Amino acid sequence: SFLEEESARAIKEKKLILLNIETQECPYCAKMKKEIFNNPQYRKEINKKFVFVSVHQNDPSLPADLRVPVVPANAIIVPATKDIIDAYMGYIEPTKFMAILEEAYKEGMK
């Protein structure tokens, strides 16, 4: 099922899942990828607390509750329950995005 491998890994490593939903044609997806997900400094921070997964908006394995009309979209998911702690649509600048992740991590690991 969707995110099964990633969930098992996240549980084992005591992490949450950060799901990034994007398309190739989306300029803001590319901007977030370049500025955050492909930035070694931010990626290192993300990898400490999250299992990062990126999927295409039209991926058939994407469950209905994660099918979004707008990309980029990011969801923070509790691996054991698949509950969505928080979700954001649209571009978010790097420092703000990292602060959001930090808050969500504290919330999700209570």
Strand order of the largest sheet: 2-1-3-4
Shape: globular
The main β sheet shows up as:
4 strands, mixed
The N- and C-terminal alpha carbons lie at a distance of 26 Å
The helix/strand class is alpha+beta
Proportion of beta-strand residues: 15-25%
Account of the protein in words:
The protein is α+β, with helices and mostly antiparallel strands. Helices cover 41% and strands 23% of the residues. The chain contains four helices and four strands. It has a four-stranded mixed sheet with strand order 2-1-3-4, with helices on both faces. Helix 3 runs parallel beside helix 4. The longest helix has 15 residues, at 94-108.
Characteristics of this structure?
110 residues, alpha+beta, 4-stranded mixed β-sheet
Compact overview of the structure:
Helix content is 41%, strand content 23%.
What does the secondary structure layout of this molecule look like, with pairings?
Elements: H1 4-12, E1 16-22, H2 27-37, H3 40-49, E2 50-56, E3 73-77, E4 84-89, H4 94-108
